[in-house]
Design brief:
By secondary structure, the protein is an alpha+beta fold. It has 21 helices and 23 strands. Helix content is 37%, strand content 23%. Strand 11 and strand 12 form a beta hairpin. It starts with 7 loop residues before the first helix and ends in an 18-residue tail after the last helix.
């Protein structure tokens, strides 16, 4: 294992290794484009097979879809209605692996209620489906990862979810899935990959895919967006895992073939936990989509929508119409309706929906109903579709496809690789009890830290012990320690205020006005840690304020077009290069 820390220094070393790949004998085995959950998973899969790997992302890690999901790790109950048992079985296996072996510190069990409106037929029909869901779940090491479902009477339902309206259900079935902080999970996968030797560079854009004399993709031209420096790299295979940017990334090879992807927008709203009385989540069928009411730390997350998005792929936004829809659907089952005044924050994400078939001339392997791997041109592999829970399977399929026949001698081994922070997670709290007590952390804060860092809480404690002032919570965002902000820069690759506020923490939608009150304190910590000048600190602060104002303006607009125009008034903290028809992540 090598140093897993992501820092400005590690980023520079990764860029140096990428630049050196044009030297004879230094060619990379695999270059991964895209720093979401699939790209991070591909990097970990490939490096753990003994391959030389680098991964680049044009913005921050998980800045796209992978930080804007419903934050669920689940088997996909809805696929049982489609009789897609294989897909559900695969997803349940991955869910249980994450809960028990790979990421028990990040992925936590979560009960859900499926409200029933009819006493006999619906209970029998839905109950049979959820029974099958439980039976398909794996049994690992002699026991189940999650409890078996149970049927609830109306009285038991009221005890479990007091704020469910009396006319909303005659009873319910309680079943279990899990949740996760999606951005933190991606970061942890990426750090696990770098700890095994992968090279990772954020804010690095692919501006061209290069070809050899035979017309095979043999590398790329990259631009370091922090400095503007461009340089070529060489790789035996390039794997694109760019989600809704799939077609743009494929176009960088100058070919028309490849996967076809459409973007579908889903939004979520966040309301305080004490606003709705309930001990479990809800899954609700609406006329347009499935709506989840999900317990999330001190809040409820409610969503999602499913609407086409044809505006700026980098900045999907919630509109007033979206927010009204989610509130209205939730209020259909809540005894005490919520309103706009209860909404602390929102987010919008884009799901890459694979379209039937591939473009002419494309070699492909449809390995799942949810995701497809294809090669639009020799040397380039694209993967798209899928779901967060099955990222590891998607990564395996992409690397297998890139290796071809060579995959048999270099099989996937990630099923047995815990993510950093997992080893020693269950004993760390007892081992660190005296240190935790000495730092004065409450039980709630300690649980928060273990759920975010696992055994790596030791690194947070070390920072706090070196500077006792960092052991305290942020004044205006007390759910987070000052030490966590420093750790995000010294261990997790945060380079800008947006990284800290939006992805290393989730203050952006956990506190009113996108946590504007906490911004000065976070900016001061960033300035001290990253060595910013007063001018740079002021510039970063102003950019964050401008973006937050644009988000708020967008959320007041009635439709996607006007909301996207409102969001576009805020400049990007690190603008991407406009490549016209193609723009690689």
């Amino acid at each position: 294992m090598t140093d897993s820390r992501l820092t400005r220094g590690s980023r520079e070393r990764a860029l140096d290794r990428l630049a050196a790949s044009v030297t004879p004998g230094e060619e990379l085995d695999i270059l991964v484009i895209g720093g979401g959950v699939t790209g991070a998973g591909i990097a970990l899969d490939a490096v753990s097979r003994g391959l030389s790997v680098a991964v680049v992302e044009a913005q921050d890690w998980s800045s796209g879809t992978s930080s804007r999901s419903s934050k669920l790790v689940h088997g996909g109950l809805r696929y049982l209605q489609m009789l897609d048992f294989k897909l559900v079985l695969e997803a349940l296996k991955e869910r249980d692996l994450l809960l028990t072996d790979i990421a028990p510190h990040l992925v936590r069990p979560l009960p859900f209620l499926y409200p029933l409106r009819h006493r006999v037929f619906e209970r029998a029909f839905v109950g049979a489906g959820i029974l099958l869901y439980d039976l398909l779940a794996s049994v690992r090491k002699g026991k189940r990862a999650l409890p078996f479902h149970r049927h609830l009477s109306r009285r038991a339902l009221t005890e479990t979810f007091p704020d469910l309206a009396k006319n909303a259900a005659v009873g319910a079935i309680e079943y279990w899935d899990a949740n996760v902080d999606d951005a933190r999970f991606v970061l942890t996968v990426m750090r696990t990959a770098t700890g095994r030797g992968a090279h990772a560079a954020s804010r690095t854009q692919v501006v061209e895919l290069t070809k050899n004399a035979a017309g095979h993709v043999d590398g790329a031209v990259l631009t370091d967006l922090e400095t503007g420096r461009s340089f070529p790299v060489r790789a035996k295979s390039v794997i694109s895992s760019t989600g809704v940017w799939t077609e743009e990334s494929q176009a960088l090879a100058g070919e028309d073939g490849g996967l076809r992807v459409l973007a579908s927008k889903g939004i979520h709203i966040v309301v305080p936990r004490d606003r709705i009385s309930g001990k479990a989540g809800l899954i609700l069928q609406t006329s347009k989509s499935v709506l989840f009411v999900i317990p999330w730390s001190r809040y409820w997350v409610i969503g999602t929508t499913d609407t086409p998005w044809t505006e700026d792929l980098m900045n999907p936004v919630s509109t007033a119409t979206d927010i009204d829809y989610v509130i209205a659907e939730a209020n259909k089952v809540l005894a005490h309706p919520i309103s706009h005044a209860d909404v602390v924050g929102t987010w919008a994400g884009l799901r890459p929906l694979l379209q039937p078939g591939t473009k002419e001339g494309t070699q492909s392997a449809k390995v799942s109903r949810e995701h497809t791997v294809a090669s639009p041109v020799p040397g380039l592999v694209s993967i798209a579709g899928g779901k967060f829970t099955t990222y590891r399977v998607m990564a395996k399929d992409a690397v297998d496809f890139a290796l071809g026949a060579g995959a048999k001698s270099r099989p996937c081994v990630t099923e047995g690789i815990p993510l950093i922070g997992a080893d020693g997670f269950r004993t760390a709290e007892n081992e660190m009890r005296s240190i935790i007590d000495g730092l004065g952390w409450s039980a709630q804060m300690t649980d928060h830290l273990f759920h975010r860092y696992g055994a790596n809480i030791r690194d947070i404690a070390e920072i706090a012990q070196r500077d006792p002032g960092l052991a305290a919570p942020l004044e205006h965002a007390p759910a987070y320690l000052r030490a966590e902000i420093v750790y995000a820069m010294t261990h997790e690759g945060a380079l800008h205020l947006d990284d800290l506020m939006m992805r290393r923490t989730r203050m952006v939608y956990e506190y009113l006005n996108e946590a504007m009150d906490a911004l000065p304190e976070v900016a001061a910590l960033a300035q001290a840690t990253l060595g910013w000048s007063d001018e740079q600190a002021a510039h970063e602060t102003e950019l964050y304020r401008t973006r937050a104002a644009a988000d708020a303006d967008a959320a007041r607009q009635p439709d996607d077009a006007s909301a996207s125009r409102a969001r576009a008034t805020a400049p990007e903290i690190v603008p991407m290069i406009d490549l016209g028809a193609g723009s690689g992540r």
